[in-house]
């Protein structure tokens, strides 16, 4: 029982340390749509691309898609 509890605590601590790095998962960080640049606020997955002049942000985490921003 204590061994399982120890493994669970270690796993939760590892997950907790990863969560602040999940910027792409936080929808409040995504910019609103821009009528001048159609690529802004679109979703880009890992290795995804955005149209010019945008770039993909927040797609380094394997659990989250990123978003395009200028």
TrEMBL record:
Residues 1-24 form the signal peptide. Keywords: Signal. The keyword Signal applies. It comes from the Eukaryota. This is Putative secreted protein. It comes from Amblyomma americanum.
